[in-house]
Here is the input.
Amino acid sequence: MIERLGAPLADPIFNQLAIIGAGLIGSSIARAARRRNAARRIVLADHSFGVLERAKALKLGDLVTDDAARAVRGADCVILAVPVGANEAVGRAIAPALGAGVIVSDVGSVKSAVISTLEAVLPGHVRLAPAHPVAGTEQSGPDAGFASLFVNRWCILTPARGADDEAVTMVKSFWEALGSHVEIMSAAHHDLVLAITSHVPHLIAYNIVGTAADLEEVTRSEVIKFSAGGFRDFTRIAASDPTMWRDVFLHNKDAVLEMLGRFNEDLTALQRMIRRGDGDGLFALFTRTRAIRLGIVAEGQETAAPDFGRRASTAEEPEP
Amino acid sequence: MIERLGAPLADPIFNQLAIIGAGLIGSSIARAARRRNAARRIVLADHSFGVLERAKALKLGDLVTDDAARAVRGADCVILAVPVGANEAVGRAIAPALGAGVIVSDVGSVKSAVISTLEAVLPGHVRLAPAHPVAGTEQSGPDAGFASLFVNRWCILTPARGADDEAVTMVKSFWEALGSHVEIMSAAHHDLVLAITSHVPHLIAYNIVGTAADLEEVTRSEVIKFSAGGFRDFTRIAASDPTMWRDVFLHNKDAVLEMLGRFNEDLTALQRMIRRGDGDGLFALFTRTRAIRLGIVAEGQETAAPDFGRRASTAEEPEP
Here is the structure.
C-alpha cells in the first residue's frame, strides 16, 4: 500500500498550530501539516531533552521548545499528543497561556477520561474538540514519525454535548487535510469500539508474549526460532510504547474489562470444543472469521498481500 | 525481506518424489524441489478436482493425479501434505503401493498424533521421517504456493526412537535444499513448542475475531473501519485454512489446553492489574515483551520494518 498526501493547501486551516508531544504521533502531525500547508506556523513542545534535540535536528517545527505554555501562546489550535495519563499535567501547565477561543484537541486512544480531565483543568474559554487518529506503528519517538501516517486511516472525533460546531468542523478539516477519513461519535461509544478493535488486541498480544517468555519447558530461543508459526504477529503490537499502553488500560478500564469479559467467555467455549473434540464447532468459527478479514481488505484498511506482504518474494520468482 | 533459493543441485536428493496434497504447502514443495533440482521426478496427488486442474495448469509435477496410490508407486520419498486429520485415510490408501525402504515424511503442524497414526497404518518396511516446515501464509491452495516459502524458515524433524538415520539425513538435506534451517527434537517437545508459538496464537486470534463479529454494541462496519488500531493483525491468522486448523486443535489437544491454561492464568493476572489500577505492573510487562520482538528480528525471522513493512511509504517521502 502506497499512501500519498495531497498537494499543499492554498489556505492553511490554522494560523499557529501548537503540538505538545513530539513522539510518533506528534511528529507525524507536524510533518503532515507542514507538507499539506495545514498551518502557517507549527510549534512543537516536548519535556524530554532527547526528543527535543531530535525534533530540532529534523526541523519539525518553526519553534521547538521544552516549555508547553510558551508553545501554546498565540496558537489558534493546540493538539495534545502525549500519553493519555499526561494530559492532566500538560493541561494544567498550558491553561494560563491559552488564548480565548483557542481550539484544544488531542490524539488519545481513550476519550471519556481525557475529556473529563481536560474539562476540569482547562479554562472555560477554550473550545475543546477531542480527536483520535486510529493510526500508528509499533515504534516510538520523533524519528519514527512520517508524513503519510494518517493517509487513508480513520480519525474519530468525539465532541462533548454543546461543543463548538466551528471548532469541530475545523479539526475535521485538519484531519482530512492530513489524509484521514473522519467519523464523529460519542466518547463513550468510541471507548467501547476501541476496546475491541485496539485495546483488548494489544492486551492479549502483550499477554501471550509474556506467557511465552515465562515458560520453563520451551526456551526463549525456541520461541524466537519457531515464531513464524503465528506468534511473531503478536510480538509486533506487544512491542508498542509501554507508557502509552499502560495509560490506555488505566483510563479505559470499564470498556476494556467489559470486552475482555466477552473474549474470555468465548475462549472458554472454544476451550470446551477442543476438550470435547467438537470439530464441527471449531470449523464453523474458523470459517466465519475469514469473512472479517476480507471486509478489512475490501475497505482499504489492510494489504491484500499474503503475510502482510512481509516477504517481497511471495510473487513467483522468474525461472532461472 | 527478499528470500532466494540457491542454484539447482547437481545431484537430486530423491529419484521420484511423491507429494500427496497440492495445497499451499504441497505446491510450494513441488515448486521449490523443481527449482532446486531436489528430485528427478515429481508426482503430485490431490483428491480435489479443482486443485488438480490448477496443479496441472501450473505444471507443478511431472504427473498430477487424483490417485494417491498411483502417485507413490515407484517413489523413493513420499511427503504427505494434507490436513493432519487426513493422514490416516491417505496412509491407508497408499500403504499397499509403498515400496520397501521408501521414505515417508509429512508436513503436519502436530507430530505425536500423526506419528502414531502413520505407524499404525503404514507397512513396517517404510522408513518414517516426520517433518514440520514452520512456514506458510494465511492463504490456501496451489495458486497460493511459491518456491521460496521455506527459505530461511525452520523445519523441525521429529524422528521416532529407532528411526532410520539415513532417511532422517536425506529428509534433512531435502529441507536444507529448499532453503530451510533444520532442527531435530522429540515429537512431544515439538507439540509443546508449537502449541505456544503457533497453535494458541491462532486460537486466540480466531477467538477475538469471533468475539468482535458477535458484538451488538459495536457494528461490523466499525470493527472493520477502526481495525488499524491493532485488531487487523489478528485477522490475518484468523483467515487461515479452517480444515487445517480444526485438525491441529483436535490432534494436539493436550499441549494446546496446557498452554491455553498458562495464557489464561496470565490474562487473569493482567485483568486484575487493570481492575486495581496497577500501572507499575502493566508497565513492567509491556517493557519486557518488547525484547522478544527484537530477538525475532535479530534472528531473521521477521522484518525490522515498522508495521510489518505494510506501507511502502513509511520511509519519508521526498519533499515535493
User: Anything to note?
Assistant: Chain A has two domains: 14-185, 190-306.
